[in-house]
Amino acid sequence: MNILGTSLRVCVDDLDHAIGVYERLTGAEALRFHRGGVAVAAVGCFFLMSGPEKELSILRKITATIAVTDVEEALGDLESVGAQIIAGPVPTPIGRNLVARHPDGSVFEYVDRKQG
Questions:
Q1: What distance in Å separates the CA atoms of residue 30 and residue 11, rounded to the nearest whole number?
Q2: What are the distances in angstroms from CA 42 to CA 8, 17, 26, 72?
């Protein structure tokens, strides 16, 4: 699997305030979108998330988001090391993703930008 980068997940109470802080720290402009009832801002290598605690509590269980060239390839590699696939692969607005629990118990989201 070819890992292109990693994004860290940060749950915040005040998304607008947090965006200003992280834009200043990273020098990157925020890209805003929604994931269910959660407002998300991608700023540099950070995903800032704000919304109902019920939804955030689920998202907090995912350690990080890992960008890969191909989710299907990642799926094969993850299965070969004994990872449990929790969700996906499924299409997203910008590609595909899956969520996997590694054998050590860590949970990661894997994403690509391929449509299909």
A1: 15
A2: 10, 14, 11, 24
Coil vs helix vs strand at 14: coil
Query: Is the peptide bond prior to 52 cis by the omega test (within 30 degrees of 0)?
Result: no
What's the Cα-to-Cα distance from 6 to each of 14, 46, 88, 111, rounded to whole Å?
23, 9, 19, 10
pTM comes to 0.82
- Report the pLDDT value the prediction gives residue 36, as an integer from 0 to 100: 84
Note the pLDDT tens digit of each residue in 34-87: 888 999 999 999 999 999 999 999 889 999 999 999 999 999 999 999 999 999
> Which pair of tokens denotes residue 107?
């949970």
- Please name which of 54, 8, 13, 51 lies closest in space to residue 33, comparing C-alpha atoms: 51
